[in-house]
Design goal:
The protein has 348 residues and is α+β, with helices and mostly antiparallel strands. It is 36% helix and 28% strand. The protein contains eleven helices and 19 strands. It has a six-stranded mixed β-sheet with strand order 3-2-1-9-10-19, with helices on both faces. A five-stranded mixed β-sheet has the order 13-12-11-17-18. A hairpin with a 3-residue loop joins strand 2 and strand 3. Helix 5 packs across helix 6 and helix 5 runs antiparallel to helix 7. It starts with 10 loop residues before the first strand and ends with a strand.
């Protein structure tokens, strides 16, 4: 395994199931790549990481393994995660070779101590002298600009690739939280299953993701006359009956139906989190509302169905996709506060 020996500034890392983002202090986000690595399995040689590797999914010959080394927000393949992260950090800091001091890593709020230590070990191999583990909803709240230190509570739902992390935060700590291993990856699976059942069309993971991004929605928009606005895109795959390639037209209504069950699970998680909160905290949330972040938070009209289900005012973070990475980096501006926020602090 390669040992990271390039030196860099303090950094924040959103080590996500779907994407990895790296934030360099005083610079901002310098890397945003899919969490994928491609390896030649006979010789163990890394052929590509990030987007280069993702483009091989579903197309690689038998001698190439295309691996997503994180599953449901945690490390499932330690060595591959270390190799992938090494390559990402080298790419992120190639023009900025100064000594590494501290690294903050965002992890789902439901991870175990064993899983936190696995993250710590991977990052310390990169040369970090101190590793801070920050729960993703706290990082997302900081990155989205919420006042996490106030006595008035704030609420955030960070919907990533592997997990949806929902938390109510006050006085620099998480008061109530729910972590659901149901997020963007499950959305893709739901779309794949819907296409099989509805159209007898077998599509790949990348096609499902493209459909989710282009026409995925929680609720259909309506025109001024109250009529549903239907959008159409093309989807290609393999016909399950003939076995031949096929292209069909898919609508945003199809995607709404495909995603309905998954989104209902997340809405239930939001409700459960509110129910866990003490009465004074719940009163704060009734006044301040809640925020959505993460790639899944960008599903069109998700804010509206959450509003309908909870009665809360719901907004989507302007930097929804980057909020966790930004929050991990911003937390480095005040190390004393970071030590309060962090759920794990490790020194080399």
């Amino acid at each position: 395994m390669a040992v990271f020996n390039i030196m860099t500034k303090d950094m924040g890392i959103d080590l996500g199931t779907a994407n990895t983002l790296i934030y360099i202090k005083d610079t901002g986000i310098v890397l945003n790549e899919p969490s994928v690595i491609a390896v030649e399995n006979r010789r163990g040689i890394t052929l590509g990481v990030g987007l280069e590797a993702k483009n091989m999914i579903g197309k690689a010959p038998a001698n190439i393994d295309v691996i997503r080394p994180l599953k449901d927000g945690v490390i499932s393949d330690f060595d591959m995660t270390a190799d992938m992260l090494t390559a990402f950090i080298e790419k992120a800091v190639s023009a900025n070779k100064v000594k590494t001091f501290r690294v903050v890593v965002g992890v789902p709020s439901g991870v175990t101590e064993v899983e936190k230590r696995a993250v710590k070990e991977v990052v310390q191999q990169m040369g970090a002298s101190e590793v801070y583990i920050l729960e993703e909803p706290m990082a997302a709240a900081i990155g989205a600009g919420l006042d996490v230190d106030s006595s008035t509570a704030c609420m955030i739902a960070d919907i990533g690739g592997g997990t949806s992390d929902i938390a109510i935060i006050a006085l620099g700590g998480i008061v109530a939280s729910t972590s659901i291993r149901y997020a963007g990856d499950k959305f893709n699976e739901a779309i794949i299953q819907y296409m099989r059942k509805r159209y007898a069309l077998y599509i790949g993971e990348r096609t499902a993701e493209q459909l989710k991004i282009s026409v995925g929605c929680a609720q259909l928009d309506k025109d001024e006359n109250g009529n549903e606005i239907i959008e159409t895109v093309k989807a290609s795959g393999r016909d399950l009956i003939s076995g031949l390639p096929k292209i069909i037209e898919v609508t945003n209504k199809d995607m709404m139906l495909a995603l309905q069950e998954s989104l209902d699970i997340i809405v239930d998680g939001i409700r459960q989190t509110i129910e866990k909160a003490p009465p004074e905290i719940a009163a704060d949330i009734a006044n301040t509302g809640m925020m959505l972040s993460g790639g899944g938070g960008l599903i069109r009209n998700l804010d509206k169905i959450v509003e309908d289900a909870t009665g809360l005012s719901v907004t989507t973070a302007e930097n929804a996709f980057e909020a966790v990475a930004t929050g991990t980096g911003m937390s480095l501006n005040d190390i004393e506060k970071l030590r309060i926020y962090a759920t794990g602090i490790y020194r080399g």
